[in-house]
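Researcher: Following up on the earlier apo prediction. This time include the ligand. It's L3IBWBLD, with the SMILES given after the sequence.
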Amino acid sequence: MWGRRVAAALRALGPARSYGTGRRLLLRQLFEARSCTYTYVLADEASRDAVIVDPVLETVARDTQLLRELGLRLRYAVNTHCHADHVTGSGALRAALPGCLSAISRASGARADLLLRDGDRLQFGAFELEARASPGHTPGCLTLVLDDESMAFTGDALLIRGCGRTDFQQGCARTLYRSVHERIFTLPGSCLVYPGHDYTGQTVSTVDEERRFNPRLSLSADEFVTLMEGLNLPRPQLMDVAVPANLRCGVQDVTA
Ligand SMILES: N[C@@H](CCC(=O)N[C@@H](CSS)C(=O)NCC(=O)O)C(=O)O
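Model: Understood. Below is the ligand-bound prediction.
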């Protein structure tokens, strides 16, 4: 059963396709208040096929209810990286919703149905999300880019007027700087940036705004590295629970 689903999903990770202009994307930005995490639901309005990005275990019931109410069929529960501050809901969603596959980067070292590489694509109806490697916060970070480059889900690589920390989980400030400049700031200026967290009440930005106003990533690479090495942030409270759980998709009995 799972073998057939994974094989079908892998077939969908093919080359980019061009689609007609009549398609319509449904997007919901959802918030988990304890960890200030954003979860995103994207769906093709016509086929009702959906993807969820960075679900949180505590809000799985909310998210499954929303999916049910909107009549969406969840194809993928994808994590942008192995989170250190909350337990992912991807394993619980996969268990609750037959047909849903969990996904994360191969470079994360975590288990999931699909282990994504740079350039892989997740298809949902008439849309695709491209997985772009954007390491630095962690080695396995992905930015998920919609096929027309109108929006990017940056996880913790790029936050609004900020970025993910680089002081644990093999983080590297110089790598993060390169990722953001080469893999995100090269997107069109109008591309909407949807981050994995926000601690200041903001919801969305654009590539152009972040290129110009991001106080960290508008610095030179050397200035950025110095700044990141001096942040001295407290450890996430749930780190010792979250990282081991997220290496197993957030659940004990994951077989993938
Ligand atoms: N206080 C929170 C953790 C806050 C934190 O460290 N956030 C991370 C992303 S989650 S690992 C981060 O990269 N922050 C960047 C920054 O500049 O703050 C908790 O205890 O969970």
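Model: DSSP finds seven helices and 14 strands in the chain.
Researcher: Noted. I'll compare it with the apo version next.
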